[in-house]
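Hi F.,

I've been meaning to write this up properly since the lab meeting, where we talked about keeping a consistent format for the predictions we share between groups. The idea is simple: the sequence comes first, exactly as it goes in, then the structure tokens exactly as they come out, then a line or two of notes. No screenshots and no reformatting. I'm using this chain as the first example so we have something concrete to point to.
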Amino acid sequence: MKVLLITKQTNQEVLDSQIKTLGIRDPQCLERLKISHEEHVASLETLRKVLKEAQIETLELKRGAAWPDISDLDCVITLGGDGTILFSSHHLSYSDVPLLGVRSSEESVGHLCALDHKGLNLLPQKLERIKEDTVLVERLCAHVDFQSGGKLITPPILNDFLFSNKNPALTTRYEISLDGLEESHKSSGIWISTAAGSTAAIGTLDVPAQGVLDKEFQFKVRELYPHPSHFRLSGRLFDPDKENLIIRNDNNASILAIDGRHGCVDLTIGDKITFKRAHPLRIFSKHK
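Output, unedited:
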């Protein structure tokens, strides 16, 4: 068996130079960074040991490094949290190689992780049960038609898109259409989410959570003016196989954020976004 192990940089590693340069002295902040870093390092050492003892061939990369050819891999393992899973999923746009997330610290968010750092001894058994312990999770991509004539297809999201004005303090203006309806909106932007991402940012807007295996997607407009009750397209489930969700940007400068900080498309007035179903991701489930 051959696996690719993707590990994150801890917040302490990322912020180390700033901490030293600025002379940060907040003891609580520094203690949290230290504990999270130490837990991650210990998890990595344990994971390496478990993989070696199980005689599993392992390639190891830091998150952000160039990926090798993955066609001969049996699995991609991520060590970190949901952010490392989201980053890695973009490299599996059209691949059926399964992804197994391991939460490396108590400080890491791990809704999508199949294993916790305290259960690393279960990893070999998980890898032996790829067919039984993995599920296909639906993903969504955005087809962008630029007013200039260019086109772009984003990587598939596992969590969500955010469409908004580039300046978060300014109003987001756009035309939205779905299933024959079309409306002109002023708002703070729109979350467009997968079923797996329904418990993330969009979930803070009192949107019901979906089951991770649901086939439909959903969108929700943020702070719609004058009030959501005045509109029919303030948010709902949609099936891109049956109906096109389309946004036409009416701002000078807007963005389409891809799974949070894992990508961003700059938009100008007249650019159009159409959301389409993408290649699903095979991922290990924590519930199996």
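Notes:
The longest strand covers residues 272-284.
The chain has a mean pLDDT of 93.

If this format works for you, I'll send the rest the same way.

G.
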